[in-house]
């Protein structure tokens, strides 16, 4: 079940397009970690641009998309920025 939960999370994240990059969260490399505990997931997103005013909105969007997946009951999402 853990593998299918992780796969469901990966599919959901691949469907979310970052409007600032035009790429999905997975294609842009913004997904830094996916943790799974049964049907609960924890996601760590790191954006490569300053987005302090947008991180909460993005986190809520990601959480809603993840929790719409039947394999996922609860999603915790952390969104931050790291500029290189």
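^ structure tokens above, recovered residues below v
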């Amino acid at each position: 079940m853990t593998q299918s939960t992780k796969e469901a999370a990966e599919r959901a994240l691949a469907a979310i397009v970052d409007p600032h990059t035009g790429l999905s969260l997975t294609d842009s490399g913004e997904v830094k970690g996916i943790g799974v505990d049964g049907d609960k997931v924890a996601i760590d997103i790191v954006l490569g641009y300053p987005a302090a005013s947008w991180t909460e909105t993005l986190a809520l969007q990601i959480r809603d998309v993840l929790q719409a997946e039947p394999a996922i009951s609860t999603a915790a999402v952390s969104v931050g920025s790291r500029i290189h």
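The longest strand covers residues 40-47.
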